[in-house]
Please model this.
Amino acid sequence: MAFFSFPILFSGSSAQLDEKAAEKKQIFDSAALLQKEVSRFLEQQADLQEDTENPVRPRLPIFFVKGFNALKAKEAALNYKCPYLNLVPYTIQMQLLTEFGPSEDYPKLDKNGYFIETPRPVMEEIEQLEVDLIDYITYHYICTDKMPLLPSSLFSTMKDIAKKPLTDMNEEAVDNMFSLDTVDLLEDDCLIEMLKKCFNIS
Model:
């Protein structure tokens, strides 16, 4: 599966004239990193499939849509249109389209350029985040023999999940969502502690 990317172009001279240049460049760089991480995750899913003649379409991780929308919110707050960020949905879609053909499952964009999310229960989203993180780390390790950094949009994804009603949320439930396999894989409890902090669970 082809790894999709494109050159990063950011004008340093124009940035000096813009008081918000640092924030804009952060959005630009974060968009480039998000695109790279998701593209690699899709590529590794495809490479590790046993049935190469009838491959299954790779799934998008939950931190793609939520991470992208978080960057769009930052972009809007600056009244800025990031050229790289607004290409990311199309480059990822093209990567899947080239290898696997069209699909109705690819998330749609609204009139403001945000991904439209299908509402889901908070615990279902946490379960999906756990699965995606385990696969993200496992696939990268199998393909490269190296442990990856955690996805750059992990914290913004957790913050978005935390906005939902948490009437059924408690510390035991959070611990159960992050299995021992996840903790063993990362060699510490950082994910559980980050999630507890995000949800204000002591």
Notes: The mean pLDDT is 81. The two ends are 43 Å apart (CA to CA). Residues 12-198 form one domain.
